[in-house]
Amino acid sequence: MKIVEIKEVIMDQFPGSVIESEELSESQVELKPDQWFEIATFMKEDPNLSFDQLECITGIDLGEEASLQTRYNFHSMEHRHKVEILISHDRKDPKVASIEKIWRIGDWFERETYDMFGIIYEGHRDLRRILCPDDWEGWPLRKDYEGQELYHGIVIPKMKEEDGWE
Amino acid sequence: MGVVKGDQMILNIGPQHPSTHGVLRLEVMTDGEIVSQIRPHLGYLHRCFEKHSENVTYEQVIPFTDRCDYLASMNSNFGYVVAMEDLMEIKIPERVEYIRVIMAELNRIASHLLALGVYGLDIGAFTPFLYMLRDRERILDMFEYTCGARLLYNYMWVGGVSHDLPKDFETICTDFLDYFEPQINEYNNLLSYNKIFVERTADVGVIPADVAISYGVSGPNLRASGVKWDVRKDEPYSIYEKFDFDTPTGTAEFGTLGDCYDRYWVRMLEIEESVKILRQALKEVPSGDVHQSLPKKIRPPKGSIYRRTESPRGDLGYYIVSDGTPIPSRVKMRSPAFTALSCLDEVSRGWMISDVIAILGSLDIVLGEIDR
Are B8 and B30 in contact (CB under 8 A)? Predict the structure, then answer.
């Protein structure tokens, strides 16, 4: 199925859930976060869509004033079609439903995005940091991130703009 | 980990343990000798690849990709440059495509040889490891001859490769393949049909196809579960369409489909397929200049792209977001070993502790790529 058809199927099933925007590329569909869990379940179980493979979850910070985004890449082994879903979050309170129960790999991908961006995936059974230590402060891949000075008494080097590392 | 009851015990494996293939810590809940839950702890090798990428230019990201999957650096480079070229819509000379495929396939053989050898080592067979490393060494020598580096090449650039092939490369490589092909038989005699090895791996750690897909397991691990999926065939990139090769899947040779032996065996068969590709590619390398289409300035248009390629470990994806400046706004690496490791908990439940080592080894993980 082409992206336009996939979009139509989702729009028919969940009216008002798709956000139209001109900035999106051909493979992208932007959704409102409200019904995400239901839409995701539908995408997996509908025989015409049957997206059984969650390829990748990427968190993105669109800049200091703008919002955070989670991007999901899906692929269907059966139909060999793919789609990229975008969901934007409020920077102050980034929250979205977890899809970890639908695709098991969502577990670790969501933990990674939580670790790097602080996006809360509601309903995730074990939302902990995965790559950084459990007691690390801040969300490293946000554009406004400033690292802590000390970690358990260890000085953390900072990067200077001109001369590279201190 | 929950409450520890009665006969249960928590056992800590790693981070410094040879069979964890790097620095990985496994918290294993055991009931006697039987594993009831595993909690992997990652991040010991986290080098902030993605954060670094946001502070350097596009071409400076390539050496970082080398260091992610340090056993198959060529393939890591390959994934990144393919994504970048698609984003920038660069057309590259045919010669470069051929050189890239030759390098990537050689590196695939080298990576699989190490994976198989070390797997034998995990199980307790020392000798095959030495045979396989001996032959891997010759591949590394060829890389050194071409680009000066043995492990971390920084060889593939956006729009080209760093060095042209040496004049006598074709002879050297053909000589190597002539020598190497009969060796595969020797590995089989040494390890594949070894009764102890088969008993340790057949029927152990079965991953059913639907579980594998749900966990995002890819590459040889997915094919071992019987799913015929190869990015080189199914979503062709570069010039892989031109070559004639098979996609080996699990055969349940000695046990159940998707067991540890199948994952081992698929890798062995894949080496043969890589040799096939190499023989075809070496015959047809066209002439040309490998530097002619290198862009002067790498400044992709605004936008984002997700591309995946087939690394020896599976689907290696790059998500690149460009904001129109020479510095990437976001580079995300979807690492195949990360997804493969995530299924360890479910697959290992109910097996013995020694089987966990067999299962972990069969997944062929590289911690550099998992932690990034």
Answer: yes
Helix (H, G, I), strand (E, B) or coil at B311: strand
**Cβ of residue A83 closer than 8 Å to a chain B Cβ:** no
pLDDT per residue as tens digits for the range A39-56: 889 888 888 888 888 888
Q: CB-side exposure of A89: number of CA atoms within 13 Å?
A: 23
Of residues B180, B162, B157, the one with CA closest to residue B105? B180
Residue B1, pLDDT score? 63
Q: How far is B287 from chain A (nearest CA, A)?
A: 36
ipTM, two decimals: 0.88
Output the CA–CA distances (angstroms, integers) from residue B265 to A109, A166, B145, B334, in the order listed.
29, 49, 31, 25
Residue that the structure tokens 């006697």 belong to: B32
Residues from chain B that touch A103, judged by Cβ atoms under 8 A, are: 214, 216
How far A109 CA sits from the closest chain B CA (Å)?
Answer: 9
Residue B307: partners with Cβ closer than 8 Å, 6 or more residues away:
B79, B82, B83, B86, B237, B317, B318
Please, which pLDDT band fits residue B106 given cuts at 50, 70 and 90?
very high
Distance CA A36, CA B49 (A): 30
HEC profile of chain A: CCHHHHHHHHHHHCCCCEECCCCCCCCEEEECCCCHHHHHHHHHHCCCCCCCEEEEEEEEECCCCCCEEEEEEEECCCCCCEEEEEEEECCCCCEEECCCCCCCCHHHHHHHHHHHHCCEEECCCCCCCCCCCCCCCCCCCCCCCCCCCEECCEECCCEECCCEEC
Among A116, A102, A70, A71, CA closest to B46? A116
Query: Chain B residue closest to A71 (CA)?
Result: B319
Q: Which residues contact B220 (CB under 8 A, 6 or more apart)?
A: B263, B266, B267, B270, B312, B313, B314, B364
The number of CA neighbours under 13 Å toward the Cβ of B48 is 12
Percent of chain B scoring above 70 in pLDDT: 99
Residues 49-68 of A with CB under 8 A from B: 52-56, 58, 60-61
Q: How confident is the model at residue A166 (pLDDT cuts 50, 70, 90)?
A: very low
The answer to whether the Cβ–Cβ distance between A84 and B229 falls below 8 Å is: no
Q: How confident is the model at residue B303 (pLDDT cuts 50, 70, 90)?
A: confident
Q: Is the pLDDT of residue B242 over 80?
A: yes
**Residue corresponding to tokens 């479910």:** B346
d(CA A24, CA B335): 25
Tokens for A92, please give them. Answer: 């102050």
- Per CB-CB distance under 8 Å, the chain A contacts of B330 are 58, 60-61, 141
CATH of domain B8-44+90-295+344-371: 1.10.645.10
Task: Reply yes or no on whether the pLDDT at B83 is more than 50.
Answer: yes
